[in-house]
Amino acid sequence: MLLFPALLLGACASLAPGDAIHDLAAIHDPADWSPRSPAAMRLTPESYLGGGRVDSPFRIGEPQRYPVADHRRLELAILEAVWTTPALDYGLSLEATGWLVIQLLQDDHDLARKRAAAILGSFAAGWIHGAGARLPAAEPDGDLAAAVQAYLAAALAPEVPESAARASAALARLDQARIDDPFQAARLVAGLGRHFRASAAPVTGRGALARTGLRTVLLALERGEADPSAEVAQTCRVLRQELVTAARAE
Fold this sequence. Notes:
Order of helices and strands: HHEHEHHHEHHEHHH
Shape: globular
Number of helices: 11
Helix content: 55-70%
Radius of gyration: 18 Å
Distance between the termini: 13 Å
């Protein structure tokens, strides 16, 4: 049994994870993941830093931009809120996974990269134990982008009798898709998560989402084993080894 659930005890449960996922991206420049200030956030920086929840005017009008005085402190606080995302809420957990992969592989803060790895491991453990996600017996060789686009085309189409079946079939294609670029995978799973929440068509095949998320996390952790910080690299190595063992268990 993996020990990830215990890691959640320190996470902040008072803030909605969806707001935190948005704000984690908001405080970074998407071009290179460098710190961004001011940042258009759903909640104020004080909401994360212990000043009590304060909604931003983003909720009722144009985004409110806030100066970020201490990026690293705010980043860690937001990650604590992201950590509360339920793994089986695929809309949120897959979107969070996309941003956390970039956080792990591009951020300049060792502790933030280590925390991102731990959260990714927590999601993957949830997919393994909560959804029965397992690694494929053979290496998939399908086109990941094409599989995602097929799902989006079906899920966002006008509601017609065959739309749910088409979306479910497209999800099944994800199991046959090759995942070999963590940044491409990050963008695609984040898009999957957002559109999964927006889709009006109910779909089956959520196991494919769990397995796709699992494979994305394992690839990111593998890349993280080359992190310049020995501590971050070791965290990624241990997490990946434990997850692979669990994902191959009968």
